[in-house]
Write a structure and sequence with these properties.
Elements lengths: L3 H19 L5 E5 L5 H16 L7 H7 L20 E4 L11 E6 L2 H13 L10 H5 L6 H12 L4 E4 H18 L6 H10 L2 H11 L28 H13 L6
Helix pairs in contact: 2-8
Length: 258
């Protein structure tokens, strides 16, 4: 009999196989490094479906995860049930060759803020995958800054449209419209504005407090996925040596957006 970790690996491998086999030409790949704004964009698309097809049903985290599929988690061989938008497939993977003939959205956030949020995310788990200081975290091969830069560099020249978290904070409606236009998705201004308003950080945080998360067994009782939503919070975490490390990687990977 397979041990539990081995079972998990087999199930994961099956889901990725179903995902690769189930990807369709009209799917849109929604990619980001973890804690960069992927969930914000997924909430926007799910609220579009809710407003257009469900009579404005509340979109909480369980509804989001049931509706918006993720590569390696959901069975992409199953049919897409919605007509308002094409299927949006989430991934945190780099730009595999199979993604390059499909439309895609790359969501990025200042990698320094991303590291802060990702650090809290990992430490919010009941069984953290990383134990160490913040400086050690940003230098780790599995979680750190260089992994962010590799993800960014793999996608930046291949994505259909790039969304910056900071731009969405300033004017989400304008940048969601830019995204929709790039993806050739037609949508009324009223629907776009209503979906954007329901997807903003304060609204999502309120929904999380009221209805909770999907995978509560993975996190400590006091952990909130929608933690702060700040920009520039990295100033309280990065030492001078950490900033030098970030600058070196920015040059190495030709970061053009921060």
């Amino acid at each position: 009999m397979l041990a539990m970790p081995d079972r998990d690996k087999v199930r994961r491998a099956i889901r990725y196989a179903q995902g690769i086999l189930g990807l369709r030409k009209d799917d849109v790949i929604l990619t980001s490094f973890p804690k960069s704004g992927n969930t914000w964009v997924r909430f926007f698309f799910c609220h579009v479906i809710s407003l257009a097809e469900w009579g404005d049903r509340v979109v909480d985290f369980p509804t989001l995860d049931r509706t918006m599929p993720e590569l390696g988690v959901n069975n992409l061989l199953l049919p897409w049930q919605h007509t308002t938008i094409p299927r949006i497939v989430k991934t945190h993977k780099g730009c595999w060759p199979i993604f390059r003939n499909r439309k895609s959205v790359l969501v990025i956030r200042d990698p320094r803020d991303t590291m802060v949020s990702f650090f809290h995310f990992e430490n919010g788990k009941k069984t953290p995958r990383f134990k160490g200081t913040f400086s050690e975290f940003i230098r780790s091969e599995a979680f750190g800054l260089e992994r962010w830069f590799r993800h960014y560099r793999s996608w930046v020249d291949h994505c259909t449209v790039l969304l910056r978290y900071e731009d969405l904070k300033v004017d989400d409606i304008a940048h969601f419209r830019r995204m929709l236009d790039a993806l050739s998705i037609r949508m009324s201004d009223d629907l776009l504005a209503a979906a954007a308003e329901r997807s903003r950080f304060g609204r999502v945080k309120k929904i999380e407090r009221q209805f909770g998360q999907t995978k509560t067994d993975r996190f400590k009782a006091d952990y909130m996925f929608a933690r702060s939503g700040e920009t520039g919070g990295w100033h309280d975490y990065f030492s001078n040596e950490d900033l030098e490390y970030y600058t070196e990687l920015s040059r190495k990977y030709r970061l053009a957006h921060y």
